[in-house]
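Reviewer 2 asked us to include a model.

Predict the structure of this chain.
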Amino acid sequence: MQGEGHKITNESVTAARNQLAGLLTGLVDRIPGAKLALLATVDGFKTAYSQQLVDDADTTAAGIAGMLSLARAFFRNSPGDVRQIAIEHDAGLLFVMSASLAGRADLGSVLAVLIALDTDPGQCGHEMEKFIKGLDELLVVQARRNTLKQGTVT
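Predicted model (structure tokens):
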């Protein structure tokens, strides 16, 4: 973006994260029985989270990256990428959905939403897809492992 005349500042990053956090809280509010939502990089860093996840966002983002890595390991010899992970627990259902560009697993984000057991999983998935499609370019983030290989961290 800097080459296009836009200057990225700490203030603009904070404003973007606050906007995303508000959108995630809105997502939780639109899904009856939703408990929290998190947007994270594919390599396990929190990007934004709903207000219900303030204390555990870092740990949750890292855990989701681990789940994504494990799921990818099972399909390592298959074309394509993991699009969704679902976990059922006595306390609820966790859905993790890829927000990566098609064919580019190293670019992108994942969206996680935790819902109550009596929540309609179809409605949750539909709302998650709408959320991802609505954000489009905001979700495309360079995975830090690629920037570290180049010697810079963005």
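The chain has four helices and five strands. Strands lie at 34-41, 46-49, 84-89, 92-98, 109-115. We have added this to the supplementary material.
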